[in-house]
Amino acid sequence: MMENDSPRHVVTRFAPSPTGRLHIGHGWSALQAHDFARENAGTFLLRIEDTDVTRCRPEFTEGIYEDLRWLGIGWDGLMIQSTRFDAYEQALDRLKASGVVYPCFCTRGDIARELAASLHAPHGADGPLYPGTCRALSPDERAARIAAGDPHSWRLDMGAALARTGPLAWQDDFAGTVPVEPDALGDLIIKGRDRPASYHLAVVVDDAAQGVTHVIRGRDVFASTHAHRTLQALLGLPSPRYRHHRLIVDAAGKRLAKRADGLSLAELRDQGLSGPALAEDLRAGRFPVGIRVEAS
Ligand code: GLU
Asked: What's the pTM?
């Protein structure tokens, strides 16, 4: 049999940000990624997404380890994004060299004023799209402002990116073949002013570095995949298969927040619940009173 005919070794991951304690929805998501790997004799990896140094805290990272172990979830490898800043910088350098990113000097206030002045500001999945002000700067202006030390972020020029890659799509277990739309997120930030990399850039670089074949994560980040697929194509990285699962909501139909009262895994443990028993309930679709899976 030729090598290409052999089934791919399945690699999944759970990639939480340590900005608070995990809640039951995180537990449910982690179980899905974990169980899919186990069912396929694959590998399940954990990745701590702590690039936002102002919001992430070491005690929440410890909490993630503790909560997963409590549920009975073991991982076969661990990656910590705060140790990977060089890799993100190299990826950004490659994007700069191919001319698909530009420095953006706008503050939030600048963008709000620009949007308020425009009659038909286009909206994407996360709200109004960046109006493109800094895309219009000349190479000389950009260089001069960078040399002058003007604070700036880096944005992906989606138009230039897709002109370079041609039409793109990703494969999603629930949504099928999803074509990448430039206006889903517009010219998104791939490196913030005070951050080594945006979530988008770090995820793409690390899913490839960890050899992830199946990204199983919540629907709340579905739209981000428009950016992720584009960055994969620009950086010459493989595109995993995606499964964006439904989210867990409370009685009012609201998604659980990190501070979800009484529903953090730590609180459930403190109430005397057994982690493995909770994991079995979640697998069987039995949720504690007051929470459920959102309607499709
Ligand atoms: N760190 C992201 C989050 O916690 C992960 C999303 C992903 O799995 O790509 O929402």
From this structure: 0.94
